[in-house]
Design goal:
Layout lengths: L4 H14 L21 H11 L6 H8 L6 H13 L9 H15 L4 E6 L2 H12 L3 E2 L2 E2 L6 E6 L15 H4 L1 E4 L5 H8 L23 H6 L4 H13 L10 E2 L5 E7 L4 E6 L5 E5 L3 H9 L3 H8 L6 E3 L2
Parallel strand pairs: 1-4, 4-5
Antiparallel strand pairs: 2-3, 6-7, 7-8, 8-9, 9-10
Length: about 325
């Protein structure tokens, strides 16, 4: 909202700098998902343009409640708010393209983490819904934490939707909105039920509205560090579709694989097509498992019943 593609490209570059040494164990690529849909701020301006308003600064005074808004403006705002349905975004061409790309990357056994800003959070939420309705290799996406989302300056009332397992969504979603963010504050006054502000910066931003991703959030103190921590926390809770496993010389376990970033052990038993995951497993346990004299005995003594586990298919 109030950002053009040039702003988005700058945000992408600055985010990669912020996180350059923060995600050990990951090979990170940064891609831009940009939407060209007319945003609500432009709709505010269009209402005023149609009435031949000469001083557009009056819009901000009306929205902020500093001056009483004329009836034509109030009626126009009510019409916009009533039609502002986030679910309609799922039919947007930009969003459909984003969803296809996220699903493609997940199908390549990659993890997807969305960092959404402002109006992009509506797109992010609907992308979340569509992606987690997918399935591949016999695994329903909503049974795993395949995509995460960090919402920045969000006008939305939520971040993502619940997954199959209780608590999974909370592990891979975060949000950050400044108390000083004038845009989100104003949207609340005109009826958009945004998540409440949760961080306050010290000092002043070069962005007088305190809404810019780069100037106010990424470069802010402490919002920059909060954003960094939120991204890191979500990243290390993500997982992939079934990943590469090594064949084992065992009468119990046919194969085993390990995701060191997420600390996930994945095993397949002899004579079974089913896959099982164990969460929070130290890497040394995996190493000891695959090198044990009796892999089955080691599994029964040190893994089975010791960690949270789930069957994938």
């Amino acid at each position: 909202m109030l950002n053009d593609r040039e702003d988005a490209v700058e945000a992408q570059a600055m985010l990669s700098v912020l996180m350059s040494d923060q995600l050990a164990g990951y090979n990170v690529s940064y891609d831009l998902s940009y939407n060209y849909n007319e945003n609500i701020a432009y709709q505010f301006l269009e209402v005023a343009r149609q009435k031949a308003l000469q001083d557009y600064s009056l819009i901000f005074l009306w929205l902020a409640g500093v001056e009483e808004a004329p009836s034509w403006f109030v009626e126009g705002m009510e019409s916009i708010i009533n039609s502002y349905d986030a679910f309609s975004y799922v039919f947007d061409g930009d969003l459909s393209q984003h969803i296809r790309e996220y699903v493609r990357k997940i199908g390549q056994c990659r993890k997807v983490l969305l960092v959404a800003h402002s109006q992009g959070n509506f797109y992010g939420n609907e992308a979340w819904r569509a992606v987690y309705e997918s399935s591949e290799v016999g695994v329903a996406f909503n049974q795993l934490k395949l995509m995460g989302m960090v919402s920045v300056a969000t006008p939305a009332s939520l971040v993502g939707y619940p997954l199959v397992y209780e608590g999974d969504k909370q592990k891979v979603t975060r949000y950050l909105t400044l108390y000083e963010d004038w845009v989100i504050s104003v949207l609340g006054r005109v009826g958009i039920n945004a998540l409440p502000a949760n961080v306050s910066n010290s000092g002043e931003s070069d962005d007088w509205m305190n809404h810019s991703f780069v100037m106010s959030y990424l470069s802010g103190d402490p919002s920059g560090d909060v954003l960094k921590d939120q991204i890191r926390s979500v990243a290390y809770n993500l997982e992939t579709l079934p990943f590469a496993r090594d064949a084992l010389d065992s009468s119990a376990l046919a194969s085993a694989g390990y995701d060191p970033a997420a600390r996930i052990l994945e095993v397949q038993f002899v004579g079974s097509e089913s896959l099982y995951r164990y969460y929070g497993v130290p890497e040394w346990v995996y190493r000891d498992l695959i090198s044990a004299e009796s892999i089955g005995r080691y599994y029964n003594q040190f893994i089975r019943g010791q960690y949270l586990s789930r069957r994938l298919n």
